[in-house]
Structures
1.
Amino acid sequence: MKKVPTWNYKFLKPLARFLLKIIYQPKIINKQVIPNEGPIILAGNHKAYPDPVLVGISTKRVIHFFIKDVYTNSPLGPFFRSCGVLPVHVGKLHKDSFASAIELLEDGKSIGIFPEGTRNKTEKLLLPLQKGTVRIAKKTNAKIVPFAITGKYRPFGGLTIEFGDPIDVSNMEVIEANTVLTEKITELLLKKKK
């Protein structure tokens, strides 16, 4: 497997955690459900650019996120690639990135995916989830930890990320697994609206 570099991720994570806690003071709920080892996929809704950072500071593990290749092909590409990301082309299956994700999971690593496929700029609670997340989970027997990001990125509070219990989709059909994941993320999102 081609090595996915993470040196910048590890270097910048403490700084990112410090800055996020100072500026946004996010409330992180139930992060203890994220396993300390073994293959895991963190999957949830996508609101804003800093979402991967918010997920990343919620666990000690290195999270390899899928990212649009427009960023890795930009002048900042070397920086993004040094953070352990997996580039994908929107609207097209990126075989190399999916293969890398599968190999990382088979090696006991962690993957971060926003199954909506893009930032949700609509009034909808959640965009339809693409099925790549559950397909990768089924292929690798990795459990999926759902999460929901609620509130607004504004100074001094109002932002929350909550994690749900890991989901085992290994014995489910793809459509069923995707429905279950959708329901779990939706439940977490609705909790914050009550």
Note: Residues 174-191 form the longest helix (18 residues).
2.
Amino acid sequence: MNLRRYLSLIVAFVMLATSTVARAMDVNFPSGATLDGRLQQEISTKSARDGQTFTLVTPSGSRIKGHLSEVQRANFGRKSHLKLNIDTITFTDETSLPINAEVVGVSQKKQTNYAQAAGTVLGSVIVGNIVGKAIGTNLGGLIGVAGGSLLAANTSQNVILPGDSLIRIRLTAPLISGVQAR
């Protein structure tokens, strides 16, 4: 009786293992296919570094891992920038594959550095007043405010990708595993 239960348990385990392997072998996404994932942590150019890793989770529960490069923090005269690189995908059965993909869509918001923007506007007002008095007009401060505001609005923003942001990637090569990959 115990032998029969033992053999039933072994058969059930083999069937479960076989179905898991079969699911892993059914991965076949063509080049150009898109996948959506939710970002699992916030990414901000204010604190991010080249090489920093991130994780996306797809609606089916697969985890896509990637890393950042070309991280550039917003600064006076320089706009912020970052690149999300896609590295691997791990399916719910824990099968992991390298993935060749590019980011084609990101929900994001920008953050203005108000202290830096205020300093830029104030500095522009002072310079505008000095220049205006030198040429004999009282409009220098007003021109300085306009110029400083425009400059501040265009150069003092960091890119922030909040956790749970939707990221869309497009495969640049087919994603195939198992028997189909041979």
Note: The helical segments are 2-25, 114-135, 140-155.
3.
Amino acid sequence: FAGPGSGRYAAVIPEVEALGDMIRALYPGKYFEFDVALPTDTAVAVERQDLSEMLGIVLDNAGKWAKRHVICRVRIDNGLRIEVEDDGPGVASSEWSKLGQRGVRLDESPPGHGLGLAILKQLVGDYAGELTFDTAAVGGLRVCIALPD
């Protein structure tokens, strides 16, 4: 992976586990499922705080919108691939292009400032990655972060 900063590596599993514990505490009525198919020592050339920020943004958004269930999948597939989906109301495909625009909020009801996905989009772009949105198998929104080798 090529990215900004000093070229430090982040250990993936400890970051996922730490954020999993934190997000479960923030949303105790919701079930967070983590499917991490990586060797325990997997490290990627992403600054630790950037990886933590990316994961935190998608997990927090999914936690806000989920009715009860969030699934997070982490893989190495031509780079790091993170998919987070929830069983919430989802977002119409016609609105996906608006997600990640600074200050744009498609729903004003939950607290927030419309910055999370904009920050995520910038971070993913800093690593020449791709951020995509889709309909989740469980009905809500699926967010995919793909960072190249």
Note: Strands lie at 10-11, 31-36, 43-44, 69-76, 79-86, 130-135, 141-148.
